[in-house]
Amino acid sequence: MTFPDGWVRDSHTYDGVSHPTYRRGTGPGVVVIHEIPGITPEVATFGQELVDAGYTVVMPSLFGTDGAPMTAGSTARTLRQVCVSKEFTKLRTGETTPVAGWLRSLSRTLHAELGGPGVGALGMCFTGGFALAMMVDDSVAAPVLCQPSAPFPVTPSRSRDVNLSPGDLDIVKGRCAAGQQVLGIRYRSDPAVGKRFDTLTTQLGDAFIRVELEGKGHSTVTAHRQQVAVDAVLDFLAAHLRPTG
């Protein structure tokens, strides 16, 4: 499958590392970070929902085959790719994923171009916690964590870890104490998220907004999409990126 028409392909480079990006829309900026196995048709469809709601959406391509559907084979191939990459943390705790620096640079560039209070950042599944890491940069004004699943919750300590170094967690806590909010969305029975929503509630208090869906599912805004989850994202983005709207 080819990538949907209408998205402009470009790239972003930071510290010698380049990744492709896809962009569409007008209005405040939102960086949408795809899940494993990549920018699937469902991820692109969600990105288009944000475009239709009046946002400039930039989707970086960090791994996988752009536009390809999610299959058992594509998921397995992408997991192999991710597991050998030095850009991502998979099992280590108390550490910010290395790709966060590149993503922060992308958000700064987008904010410098578009202005306004800042940009939104939304990660999902393996990249769910990346939006929290991006929040270390002041350019991110609306961080959304959809079913954050890294580090892989294979032990109790990993299931509680939020994929941030202690220093970065302190910055996030400081921003929340100053009024910033963080939105988290998950299926209540999803084992991939582990106990990290509880950690975020403990660390961030009322600044962490929890939306927990009933039933069995994982991908809250894509493959197992529920309108209540999408509406929560749209409301959160509007509140923080259009404060006078």
From TrEMBL:
- Name all Dienelactone hydrolase domain ranges: 26-145
**Short name of one Pfam family:** DLH
Give this protein's Gene Ontology molecular function annotations: hydrolase activity
Could you list the residue ranges that cross the membrane? none
Task: Decide whether keyword Protein biosynthesis is in the record.
Answer: no
> So which domain of life are we looking at?
Bacteria
Keywords attached to this entry:
Hydrolase
Which parts of the chain are coiled coil? none
- Magnesium among keywords: no
Stated name of the protein: Dienelactone hydrolase
Q: Which organism is it from?
A: Nocardioides alpinus
